[in-house]
# Entry
Amino acid sequence: MKICMIFSIYSPNYQADGIGDYTRILVQKLRQRGHDVHVIASGRYAGDDQRVIKIGDGYWGIRELVKAFRKIREGRFDVVHLQYTPVSYGFGVTFKFLPFLIQISIHDILFVTTFHTLVGGKWISRLNALLLSAFSHKIIGTNEEVAFLFRKWLGLFKGKFSQIPIGANVSPAETDIRQTRELLAKKYGIVKDAVILSNFGFSNPGKGFEDLIDALNRLNVNGRYYVLQIGAIRDEDVEFRNYLKSLIRMRGMEKNFIWTGKLDQQQASALLKASDIYVVPYTDGISIRRGSLMAGIVNGLPIISTFPRVEVPYFKDGKNVVLVERGDPVRLAGAVERLAKDKDLREKLSVGVNELAEEFDWDRIADRTLKVYSRGK
# Structure
């Protein structure tokens, strides 16, 4: 099968963020299954994948629409699969007519749209979602929030809809936890009986960092709680990270909040596994759309997060996660302290989350995606 994956980016390679990682890994898994997969991406792509077609920088409009359409027509693809979130393509309407153009002019192509988010805070996002949904042959949603909004606003197209979750972009690695903790102690001066909390991903709003800092401040009367913030720093995150650092500095916790910077997968997994608790107090609640959450799940960590806005059947409070109210650092601190003291509960949560990890296995995701392709129009 010849497949064209479409993903709009601004960064030099298409693994630069969560959805970029999703695209990269899905492409890899489909190629491993013998399919010829090409990618239409931003002109700023600077990687060495010879099957990446570059069509333009910034938000995509009429020029990118024409270029993408020509490349698709010339490529004689069986499937065109658009990875969509409103902010990636901009809020203009023009490029969203791509599936319409394909439907009326290239009749032997299956057009699939995956919605990672459905709307982006502007009214025109609903129109864009309507256009893509109306003219795509198949639609995939990656999480319950998308499924809920789809049923609410676009129920007319529910026959096209499938839900397939994302996977993790940090694969679990074999590691010596004791040795890693000794290295952490030596490098960062972490005390011997420390409780190490971890968090993975970019430092941007919405992840509850302010609540985590407040909770750490409440706990840290004896200085034994530490946070490992694992992940690269993008240019667009610098201002927010500086704000977070100012909050940490005002509380005198610079030594207890550790920014690792960019690490390879082996290093990131080693640090995650060396931590005691994975803390992700999202301001909008726990969600399977969060690649940062998947990192904790696949590495088998006891997880503390926040109650979701929309019911997420994967997560059971006290069985495979511990959930607290959103925006409540007092309860967050209580949950951290409870898990720090209760080894049996941590082990119970790790068992539960290891069972849950099977749902987000990349091979399963690739196979389910191929099933959507095989159903045809």
Observations:
- The longest helix spans residues 18-32.
- DSSP finds 14 helices and 13 strands in the chain.
- The two ends are 15 Å apart (CA to CA).
- Confidence is low (pLDDT under 50) at residues 10-16.
